[in-house]
Amino acid sequence: MTRREKLREFASANRLLLRTAPAQIRMRLGRPNAGARAFDLDAIPVPDSKIAREAEDECREVAADRLLMHSYRTYVWATLLARCDNLNPDPELLYVASMLHDVALTDRHRDANAMVCFAARAGVFAAQWTKQRGWPEHRCATVGDAISLHLNSVVDAKHGPEAQALQAGAALDVLGLRMWEFEGATLDAVHMRYPRLDMLAGLSDFAAEARPHTRTHLLMRWLMFSTLARHSPLERRA
Hints:
The protein is mainly α. The protein has one domain (3-27, 48-237). It has helices at residues 3-28, 50-62, 65-84, 91-100, 118-132, 137-148, 161-175, 184-193, 203-207, 215-222, 225-230, 233-237. The longest helix has 26 residues, at 3-28.
């Protein structure tokens, strides 16, 4: 990241924290959100195409169980938040992106390519992986772009609903952002189906990627990512 990019992302993240602070304070004080929504998990489309199954198999094969469960939950949260935001992401594309978005944290794919940022590394890998399985160029580019951007605090609409939903889903699962938009029964149902396990143990893999001039470094050093993750209200609920 350039100095300008770091400053822009730092400002964007702090605007997000300020904007969501009232909701977070109300939640931590135990004040219910009258607008919280309930969803039936069985109504969420789970793609069963060949490439969706292969993406799931890839994640299951290379990742620890905690990372696999995070990937499942990221897809669920992303789908639900997309509905809240009136977005219409392609379910198959979003599912593949969710399954592959953190594979660059695994031993097999940590050195998949020369990209320094692990999110960018995973994005390049996913674009190549989907191309090898016959996806057209525009779908490969979309999945790669979505994964590359998932560490951003905000994703511009120009990148498409899949990128927006993936970022929101991952942020909810790790930091608890926007969890107040769902009723407790929905949160608990997600964790019952896809348990958090020892998810916080995976922070060491994330911290190892905090190389200079990467978004991971910015998140860890300046945006208190580790602290926010450890104190996520979702960790106390699970």
